[in-house]
Amino acid sequence: MRKRVRSKRTITENKIRRSTLITVIGDAILIMALLLCLLIYNASNNASIYNQNVENITNIATGKSELMVAVLDNLSHEIDNSYRYCNNKNVTEILDYLSLISDEGDEYQLLKRDEELSGELYHVYSGYSTRKADGAYQPVEYWDTDLTYSLNQYAGQPAGEICYSQGFTNNTDALRYFAVFCGITAMEDGRLQKYYLVKPQKESRVLAQLQSYSQYGELTTAICYSDGKYMARDSAFRGDNFFDYLYSYNDLSLDARNAIKDSVQDDSDGVGILEYRDYKSRDCVFAYAVCGEAENWYVIASVPVSEFLSAQLLSIIPLIIIIFLASVLIFNIWRLLIIVQQLRQSAEREQIANTSKSLFLSRMSHEIRTPLNAIIGYNTIARGEMANAKDNADSEQAQMKVMDCLVKSDIASKNLLTIINDVLDMSAIESGKINVAHNRFDFKALIASLTTVFYSQAKAKKVGFEVLFDTLTEEWFVGDQMRTDQILTNILSNAIKFTPEGGTVTLKIQQPEADTNAAHIHFEISDTGIGMTSEYLKHIWAPFEQADSSISRRFGGTGLGLSITKNLVDLMGGEIKVESIPGGGTTFYIDLTFERVEQPQNSQVYDFSAVNALVVDDDSSTSDYIRLLFDRCGARCTAVTSGADALDAFSAAAEKGEPYSVCLVDWRMPDMDGIETIRRIRSIADDHVPLIVLTAYDFTELANKAAEVGVNQFISKPLFQSTLFDLLANISGAMPPISIKNNKIINFSGERILLAEDNAMNMEIAKMILESAGMVVDKAWNGAEAVSMFEASAAGTYVAILMDVHMPEMDGHEATRAIRASSHPQAPTIPIIAMTADAFAENVAEARESGMDDHIAKPIDVNKLLDTLKKHLKLR
């Protein structure tokens, strides 16, 4: 019976659907349970909330009534004081005094009944306000208003008795007022007449004095007499009478209306509440309170019942909980939908990635098998040639073919190693195992090394290669030298690979600015190669990608180099961009930031002010850069861009009596190259003037010809500040004739090495390499044996220890720590060099942390091994 096999994607989606359903049902049950609890809670809590709010409003009304009493008392004192001073005075004197004591925006009025205009049904009062118009006191006249009604009502009161008016409209500004007043006697036309001393108070000002903090947003206030007529009111209290206001907006019978008046006027406590609708037809609570001893004055506070719930914190908690729970439900559904969508997208990306990786593995199979086939094939040919040799002539010919096979096999093995390194680098990047180093390094040495390597590659392919500096103020930085070298190497190797014969590759370096702690270095790598399409540029940094399959067939490579480069730049906090035109070349722009470090200083002070230099280079930016280096050294410098200009400049300087004391000439220039230029300059220059050739190329082939024309020295491009400083410091007259020395063959004859290696084949290879250089090799098959042999040896027996890392019993790191901790006289100083297949930066760092002095990656590069030994043996 065949079993039905379901994909992981189907199983995952089913689990998600079940989880979604369970989550939704659970959230719904939780919300329903909480809603039920909230309904029960609200039902039991609403009555207490209502009563509490009624009590709050009553307290507010009582508080406002106490404030109103204080306001009335203060007004009474003011007008009483004015009365005592003004009574029986002349009208003009009274007005002058009242004007003097009035504040800005405040006023007094002096009124008397106009008997000629007043009648039985209406009253007219006229007089003056302390407000002035055109320098004179402003006349005032009131016709049958609430103020005239009040003045007439209290006309029989004795002079000086304080009274209060109902609310009225002031004729001077048309605003709502109420007034405090008293009768007064004033001299007019030589006789005493009865006047009223009136102090109007703005309705808004009185209400503002009654304002106090309240949790209610729509609290309104009114002050009225016991008959309901307003003295002051908020705009929400419509009409002129409080009782009429309630009657207008509530359907009340006559008995109900009378009951309202009776409840207010006959309330023995002077405090109470009314529950009716306002002009907006909202249910409201009206709380009233008597103003102290003035039993016919009331303060009324009104609040809509709808504000009760919003005013109580407890009442909004249920709403908050409901909103929160609804949000939780919506969020959970949304989150689960997003997860489902992400899983689908992830599955699609995984399918695309698997397709890309399948294509990559197919390409890797081809890339790996190609050099591997060459290695196996050349080994087979070599064995066959030796086996078929029948006599001495055949043997000699076979040896030549074997040597050719070995050379080609070596090239193929290095290609295979490059492929493996790219794959391992990409794997380390994807797994997050790559760390960025933070060490002090020599930037000059880094660029010089790159120049040497890529000049040779470019020359072999007949491609021009040049390194240019625009500005560079420092030569030492703190950062990751190895990763910087890897980034530039990847881009430069591609540039040379994809540039056809006769093309050019240029590396331009700038240091645009330098802040307090960081140095920003800009690299620009341009070529005249095959270029890239805009479509490919969209995914140029993706791993396992190449423009098309023909790229790998024509040029080789894994398609990982640019992805590795982009990831390394990102890890170092830099930026990389690219511009390219199909058939028109490519330019990469790389910006890296390094930590600044104190630059090495020369211990001696030199004065180069007497130096007058001539620089000849057809590239103007290079000429400007070299001239800047001379300026920093305090030397004079003139730059020209051709050999002909150099001859003219040299002759002109001699005629002025300011001859050049040193001349630097670029080798590769159009029309007249550097050698020819120096030959002609030497014919007109003094013999002691140093003539120096600047070149980025191998000058060995020019050595003899250069010496014949009078060249004193070669200096490699790019030129650094320290190189120029050393050159100027060494110029003290004619320089010795140039001599090109061949590299000495490294000879370690008789030096004894301790080699720790657990693999027999690796041990044999390393032992043969070392013995071929004249060394004596002692073998240790694990870390513990290496420690024992070293501790048992006499001081000076071994000059160095080569230590594998992965070994039984005791690994290389443990063995190194044990050696450093031992009591052997050489323990702290003997060079210990890791020789391991662990080739990542973190492996190098781990080796140094354990006490090792250096690191050599397997497979072993013979030259690098011997150079490393030579470097460390010099330190003894």
Average pLDDT, rounded to a whole number, is: 80
Q: What is the radius of gyration?
A: 52 Å
Low-confidence stretches: 1-6, 732-744
Work out the strand percent.
15-25%
Number of strands: 29
Measured between the Cα atoms of the first and last residue, the distance is 77 Å
Helix coverage percent: 40-55%
Query: Which shape, going by the Cα principal axes?
Result: elongated
Please tally the helical runs, counting DSSP H or I stretches of 4 or more residues. Answer: 24
Q: Describe the largest sheet.
A: 7 strands, antiparallel
| Structural class by helix and strand composition | alpha/beta
Protein model, in words:
The chain is α/β, with parallel strands linked by helices and 876 residues long. The protein is built from 24 helices and 29 strands. The strands form five sheets. Strands 1, 2, 3, 4, 5, 6 and 7 form a seven-stranded antiparallel sheet that branches. Strands 13, 14, 15, 16, 17, 18 and 19 form a seven-stranded mixed sheet that branches. A five-stranded antiparallel sheet has the order 9-8-12-11-10. α18 links the parallel β23 and β24 (713-716). α1 (8-86) packs antiparallel against α8 (313-388), α8 (313-388) packs antiparallel against α9 and α11 (481-497) runs antiparallel to α14. The longest helix has 79 residues, at 8-86. The radius of gyration is 52 Å and the shape is elongated. The relative contact order is 0.05.
Map the helices and strands.
Layout: H1 8-86, H2 91-101, E1 109-113, E2 124-133, E3 136-143, H3 146-153, E4 163-164, E5 168-169, E6 176-188, E7 191-202, H4 203-209, E8 220-225, E9 230-233, H5 242-249, H6 254-265, E10 271-277, E11 283-291, E12 294-304, H7 307-311, H8 313-388, H9 392-430, E13 439-442, H10 443-460, E14 464-471, E15 476-479, H11 481-497, E16 504-510, E17 518-527, H12 534-537, H13 549-555, H14 561-571, E18 575-581, E19 585-596, E20 612-616, H15 620-632, E21 636-640, H16 643-655, E22 662-666, H17 674-684, E23 691-695, H18 703-709, E24 713-716, H19 721-730, E25 752-756, H20 760-772, E26 776-780, H21 783-792, E27 800-803, H22 812-821, E28 832-836, H23 841-849, E29 854-857, H24 862-873
Parallel strand pairs: 14-16, 20-21, 20-22, 22-23, 23-24, 25-26, 25-27, 27-28, 28-29
Antiparallel strand pairs: 1-2, 1-7, 2-3, 4-6, 5-6, 6-7, 8-9, 8-12, 10-11, 11-12, 13-15, 15-19, 16-17, 17-19, 18-19
Helix pairs in contact: 1-8, 8-9, 9-14, 10-11, 11-14, 16-17, 21-22
